[in-house]
Amino acid sequence: MSLESVASFASIDLKANEVALNQLSEQRQWPFTTYAAEELDDIKGIENPSEYVKKVTGSNSVAEAAALKLGSSERLVVPKWAFKKDGYNMTIACCRLEFSESLVKHKRKNWLGEKRHGKKDSDNVTKKPVKRNLYGNEVVEGYQCKPKHVDLNRPMLFHTHHLLLCEGTRCAKAGAKNLAHDLRTVLKEVGLASGRKRIKISRSMCVGACRNRSALAIYQRLIPNCDKPLTNHGIWLRGIEEFSESTWRELFIALAKNQPISEVIEPRFFAPFEESKE
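The structure corresponding to this sequence follows.
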C-alpha cells in the first residue's frame, strides 16, 4: 500500500501523548485520534483478540480495534501485523475509509477528457452556443459571466451568502484554478444559483493565508425585516481543495437552511483566528 493512500491513524488513549506518533501526525499531516479502552474492547471485526493486550490496556485489541473504530467499519484490509526493527516494536492494522475524491482532483484528472459543448452543422463546422449569465446577458467570448452590454444602473442580484474563494497563484498551482466556475455549476444543480436562497461565489487573489492552502471566507447577508440569526457569518475554511462534490453540496444546502456548517464540515477545515491583543 502507498503512503499516499493513508488518510489518518488511531490508537488507544494510552498512546495519546507518545512523541513519535504525534510527530508523525504533524510531519505527514495525518489526523491522529485516540480512543478509551472501553470504546475499543470487543469491537465487531477484530480478527486477533488478545487476553494479554486486554490485561495491559483494558481492551482485547488496540491496532485492529482502533482501525475499525476510526473507519466505522467491520472489516479489516490488513489484520494485526507486528513490525520489529532495532529493538523497537509497532503493531499495525488497516481498514478502508469511506472516501470521496475531492472536486478539484476529479476535475483536474478529467479536464482533458471532458466533452466540449456545441453541435456541428451540415458543413461539419462546430457552432458555439450563445453563452448567457444569470441576468440573461450574452457573455463576452473567453469569459464566464462578463456581459457584452453593461447596464451600470442594474442592481446586484439578490443573495443570502457571499463566498470568497482564494484562487491566488499558489492555490492555482495546487489545483484550485477554475474551482469557482465548477462550484457555480454545483449551485445550479442544487437550485441555489438564483432565487431567494441564492449563494454568490467570487474569486479572490491571494488572501495572505497560504499556510491554510486553498481558503474560503463565508459572509451571510443581513436581510432587513428578517428575524433569522446570522448563523454562518464571518467563517473561514481552509484546505478546501480536499472537498468532494458531495461535501460542497452538503455545505451549500446547510447555508440555504441556515444550519451551522460545523454540523456538516469536519473541525479540521475551520481556520483558527488569533484573538485581538488590544
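The mean pLDDT is 83.
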